[in-house]
Design a protein that fits this description.
By secondary structure, the chain is of the alpha/beta class. Helices cover 56% and strands 14% of the residues. The longest helix has 24 residues, at 76-99.
Length: 196
């Protein structure tokens, strides 16, 4: 079974590409969603987050995302500390999930594949690329955010061009090139690798 990573900067359209793979019957692990679940379900992780960020980081058993975001997005050191806690747990969850799958290949969708060093556990990585102006527009509309807020979030991520250079395959999501044929071509390529 091939393990395929799927990454890209904020607003690039990773989730849309992941959805196309799902239509083709390929299981997709959404690392960002899973990480949020782990931050509420993994008791050891909850205790570590509370120790680092205080009891206000949870309301009952629910992660206080706004409180935590206000801290980590204004302090790169705190963000790094949070990632150091969460990434290992999310990587382990992905590995366990992959071990239970029976499809010819699986896809792990994650914004921080390279930053978390989880790309090394995968056979190939697909990068989803879109021009920055389009990415900003999408995120502003999706999150009801200002251009400044989106640019700040982009500034905290790995440089898009650097990330795409590291990828084995690239899907262009610029609203000019069709997505489905690009993903279908990759789907056929992965299946052919397995039957070779």
């Amino acid at each position: 079974m091939l393990k395929i990573g799927l990454t890209g900067g904020i607003g690039s359209g990773k989730s849309i590409v992941a959805g196309i793979f799902k239509v083709f019957g390929i299981p997709v692990f959404d690392a960002d969603t899973e990480a949020k679940l782990i931050m509420e379900k993994d008791e050891q992780l909850v205790l570590s987050i509370q120790k680092l960020f205080g009891n206000d980081s949870y309301t009952g058993k629910i992660l206080n995302r706004k409180y935590l975001a206000n801290i980590v997005f204004n302090d790169p050191g705190k963000l790094q500390q949070l990632n150091a806690l969460v990434h290992p747990a999310a990587i382990l969850a992905a590995k366990k999930w992959m071990d239970t799958q029976t499809a010819p290949y699986v896809v792990k969708e994650a914004a921080l594949l390279y930053e978390s060093d989880s790309a090394r556990h995968l056979d190939f990585v697909i990068g989803v690329h879109a021009p920055q102006a389009l990415r900003i527009k999408r995120v502003m509309e999706r999150d009801n955010a200002s251009e400044e807020q989106v640019l700040a979030r982009i500034g905290r991520q790995m440089n898009e061009e650097e990330k795409i250079k590291l990828c084995d395959f690239v899907v262009i999501n610029d609203e000019e090139q069709l997505l489905i044929p690009q993903v279908l071509q990759l789907h056929k390529k992965f299946l052919s690798m397995l039957s070779a």
